[in-house]
Write a structure and sequence with these properties.
By secondary structure, the chain is an alpha/beta fold. The protein is built from 10 helices and 10 strands. The protein has a 5-stranded parallel beta sheet, sandwiched between helices. Strands 7-8-6-9-10 form a 5-stranded mixed beta sheet, sandwiched between helices. Helix 1 packs across helix 7, helix 4 packs across helix 5 and helix 9 packs across helix 10. It starts with 9 loop residues before the first strand and ends with a strand. 40% of the residues are buried.
């Protein structure tokens, strides 16, 4: 077990797929005052964490991924040892759809770290997913497939800013099914059966955060019924997720375009649950995030 004397030391671990935005996330953390280390072999994590804590650092961020070789598979056990030692440590896992990653590598003309000149980019990505499979279950996922760099920066700042006194942070995310289901969703709900403000020319350019759209949806009994059903299910199962010692639970609500119905429901759910615990609200298609 790792023993740390500096109990105020906070450590953020970054992992995930190549091309998913880890360098952007690490730069955000460095700009926010974190001492950052990129591409650390996982075997050195306990020693580095002890050293940084002993030297009086308050916050640090370390990126560990497939560039570390086979040692990355040991990351979960080192993470558990650090937590047992009382360290405030969080693991963020960035990922994206394969076609998105292939496009990014093509645009930047960068070489995938697993290519070795014998694999296609798509083959490298799937191999990387396999090699990181042991890490996935211990992390909070961030799907960057349809995300702008500024949105990722905002989400990273929100996630690391949440106090660890909260055992579980509840994340509500709206999205559009036509852009794909978020890879980071733990629970997914489909709001496409609800009345659609899109077909009203006056409401079409607005979003579910605007009062005219909210009034339209509030007048539909089915919307209130779905909201209550989602709220009840999340309330019922929250204790079970807390018992798993999870740091985050992401509840995604989708409609066709991610502009009206899903946004409204996520806003309503966020407002209800913020009285109980820390809540993060994300609107993927609106490129907007905020802490409730």
């Amino acid at each position: 077990m790792v023993e740390l004397q500096n109990k105020d030391f906070q450590l953020v671990l970054l992992s995930g797929l190549s091309g998913s935005g880890k360098s952007v996330a690490l730069a955000v953390l460095e700009d926010s005052g974190y001492y950052c280390i990129d591409n650390l072999p996982a075997h050195f994590l306990p020693q580095v964490a002890e050293f940084l804590a002993a030297q009086g650092y308050q916050r640090a961020a370390i990126s560990i991924d497939v560039r570390s070789g086979h040692s990355v598979s040991s990351l979960p056990q080192y993470l558990q040892a650090l937590r047992i030692g009382g360290l405030d440590v969080r693991l963020l896992f960035l990922e994206a759809r394969t076609e998105t990653l292939v496009k990014r590598f093509s645009e930047t003309r960068r070489r995938h770290p697993l290519s070795e000149g014998q694999r296609t980019v798509a083959e490298c990505i799937e191999l990387e997913r396999e090699e990181l499979s042991d890490v996935v279950d211990f992390a909070h996922h961030i799907d960057t497939s349809d995300m702008q760099a500024n949105t990722l920066r905002a989400w990273i700042k929100l996630l690391v800013g949440v106090s660890r006194s909260e055992q579980l942070t509840l994340v509500f995310q709206s999205f559009g099914f036509k852009h794909g289901i978020p890879l980071d969703a733990d629970l997914v709900f489909d709001a496409r059966a609800l009345p659609n403000p899109h077909y009203d020319p006056q409401l079409r350019p607005l979003t579910g955060k605007d009062q005219p759209v909210a009034a339209f949806l509030q007048a539909a009994p089915a919307v209130q019924t779905m909201y209550e059903d989602i709220r009840s299910l999340v309330e019922k199962w929250l204790p079970a997720y807390r018992e798993e010692n999870r740091s985050y639970l992401t509840v995604a609500v989708g409609c066709t375009g991610g502009q009206h119905r899903s946004v409204y429901l996520v806003e309503m759910l966020g407002a209800w649950f913020r009285a109980q615990q820390t809540v993060l609200v994300r609107h993927r298609e609106l490129h907007d995030s905020r802490l409730l």
